[in-house]
From TrEMBL:
Source organism superkingdom: Eukaryota
Protein name: DUF7779 domain-containing protein
Organism taxonomic ancestry: Eukaryota, Fungi, Dikarya, Ascomycota, Pezizomycotina
Species in which this protein is naturally found: Bombardia bombarda
Compositional bias annotation for Low complexity: 936-952
Domain DUF7779 residue range list: 487-573
Composition bias type Basic and acidic residues, residue spans: 963-972
Amino acid sequence: MELSTDTDVHDTYLSHWGKSLDGLLRQLEPHDVEQIRTVTDSRQIRSLLADPVRTGVVLPSLEHFEQFVDCFISSFDPRTNSFAIWGMIHLTLKLASDATDGVTQIADMMRRLGLRLELFNACTKGPGGSSKQMKEAYLEVYIDLATFFTACIRFFRHDTAMISPGWNENHSGRWSPLLKVYNASLTSINDRFEHVSVLTRLLKENTMVNDFQGQQSLLSLSPANFTEVAKLPCVMLPAGRGSRYYNRDGITSKIDSFFYPASGERAFRSIALHGIGGVGKSHVALKYAHLKTSNQSIDVVLWFHSETDPSLAQSFTDAALALGLPGIGRDRHLENRIILHSWLQQTTCTWLLVFDNAENQDLLLEYWPKACARGSVLITTRNNTMQFHPADAGIEVPSFDPGAGSNLLFHLLRMDVIDDLSGDEERSALKLSQQLDGHALALSFIAGLIQKRSWSIQEFLSVYEKNKRGVHGPRQPNALSTIWKLSFESMNKGSAAILGILSFIHPDEVPEEIFTKASPDSLPPLLEHCTDEMDFFDLADPLLELSLAKRDKDAKAFSTHRLVQTQFRYHLATQGHRQEAFDQATKLLFDGFGLYQDQLYEKWSRCQVYIQQILSLKNNYKKETDELEPLKPTLKFCWLLRNSARYLLETADYVELEDVLSVAKSAFDKLTNAEREEGSLVLAGIQNITGLQRVHRGSFDRGLMHMRECNRIQSEQKVIDLIGLSWSEVNISNILASACEFDEALQWLLKGERTRKSARDDDDGKGVQSADFVIQQNIARVNVFLGRFDQAQVQLQAAIDGFEKLRDWGMLAYTVFIVGLLERKKNNYAAAREAFQEVESGWLAGGGQKTHHFYGACLYKLGCVANDLGETDVAIEHLENALVVTKMKENVMPGDYARVLHKLAEILKKKPGREVEAAEKSIEALRIRMGRKPSIESSASASSDGNSWSIISEREDEDEGQHDDSDEKPYDEMVYILWR
């Protein structure tokens, strides 16, 4: 008995689709089938929607249909035809325009179908999109849509097989025959969505586990090698949040009962604590964590700041360092995450993780424990959907009732131990709690004000009542806004200046050194003495007394509640000082981060101190620009974003980088004409990094456009920065080389070399000298691809000697990588392998990460050379490791991922028993490659009988003719030249 393979199932699905499509088309008149045949894609439908009325009602739905068809094609085969559905929609809209209310009715049905498709599309993105179950779901939904639009055509043609006798096109119920088919299609799609939503979740979790196993293998973290080396016990909790906890015992008991059921079962469990901002979710999590550590019932408690990717990454690094796990580096966030996840999976100790302020589900899943049999996780969030996924359960943290709220106030004022409280104090506390709806954070501010002023509760209530009239805040009840006003107005100007800066930067773990180690010129006049720690704490203490900020004395860092940040920015706006605080935060971060023209590899540690603060400033700028009186960007703000973008480029954080560049460009465009003229070089810098970001991700045309604009701006300066100009010339060359325009690339390199020789050596010579070696390296690379091997050999040796002298391990690795390319092109496979092995060892010895895309490229080349030498098993091992690295960046660097998939598939075809796996990888690689070829379009072809329809398009690569898929070249050409 032969077992069916995935390929057999794939062919079965295609056969089923073809037969279903043929059956539907046979229900139509031949002339309608011919019209459907002429429409090959959705662009012809958009042309039909030329008038504004049709466009407005149909176009939003059409976009969901387009996305669905793209996913459908990708799920099966990049060459799959999609003409039928577009032809059917086109003809339906055309016929509907001739019927009374036709366009309106069809548009409404398409809108409802489109909404279902939108959910379906979102659900099927990512892992599992090409699984058998997903293919079946795509296929059935596609057939449902085709059935509906076939019915539409028959309805408008008054098909008697569909319309019963006595039907009247002018009757109010004339749409009922079509509505019957529509409702059936809609119900079927809904059923598919419910099934797929569960399936997607399971597939995604399974894929993440499989990916994690590959990452463990890459870093040699297999369970067989595990030994317990962590420093135990380990408790990493936020400091400065007092150890006096009030109430919430009912919630902590529920948490403990869930994590430790009476049955004694010990399994991995998770709970989401959800509720509105400021009710005390983090307080509950912290109380529970302290309970478990105080009775020594748990070995490890780790607290993660979870609002953004950079904050989570830093928290994971801090946790891994606290545990003392081997292989941890302060700059290696991705590797540190894998190492910590591996330890959580394999350790036998008891542990609790707290993901505090988690709002983004997809981001949280990236950091979620992988395949753990034990352990506990708490999430604090305002997003109540977290209780369904990824958490196993949820507990709402409500505001206090009036009585509990008044008791909280007594607790904070340490009056809960007084037996003879006056009735006036008790009534005043109860009234305050009632008016504030038991809001925990607001009550803590009241306690701070009362203690600072030495008021009684009754005296505070009197002040509060006088001030609450006419006080309003952003999306806050009047009562809460009054508390904010009283707290903020009780500060001195220096304290307010510090809080103004804190309100724009990261809410958690802000290093004191940003203030205390700043140049006095970087600080506003009120804070110019903050470099003296005593003066700084004189100004910071009121923030601590009023509970407006917390301080971790061990980490020497400040934290501010997100509500405090939002409300103080609003307060500043009402006082006319919000712009001033934003400008002060910008200047402080700009001066601290620094302005760098060259690479930052040696300065990453310094950059990490500031990067989270800069990203938070950027995010808060975006929020505040949506207000009625938006912030005005400054030239210094644009420079700050441009400078930080360089660091994000080097660390390959392309998602955050794209947003930073977008905000930087938008901010620059809002400057005055005079500011834009003065700061034209910042625009050149933005264009430069935007261009590099594009080409790193394989978009060479767009990257070249940005880089040419950068070069144009630089060359038109009154005083030209020749070093900067030469860098853009080198970058243009690299982009041209990536597009295989090697002769023109060489001319730009020689131009850059001439520019460099004209530059004066204004520093110690190291920067210019290093840049000269970079040019030699790049000229050598182009000569390798042009086949000028002797010239390349001389230039490579000069560059290697230079980088060795400068001890520039990063550039040395890139140079020796070219040596490997040269030797392989000369068929010297043993020498090529030796070169790539030298790159691998040098990269790691210098501090490079195994998860970096350049390391992935090195593994890829080692796999290729091993295959050249006939060492199939060695080649597979290298390529599987390369696949692990490139898959981590699959969404932002698809070309790198596709070429490893393709090469691995070609080699796996030779291994008995792995043919199906090879076919799947080959199809996935082809899907990515075809998706980057806008010139490749679908074409319908009819079989000899004129009735059956071809399922697979006949495609032709216009540039290469009928290419050989076994060739590396088409896939190499998707990768940036520096690691091609």
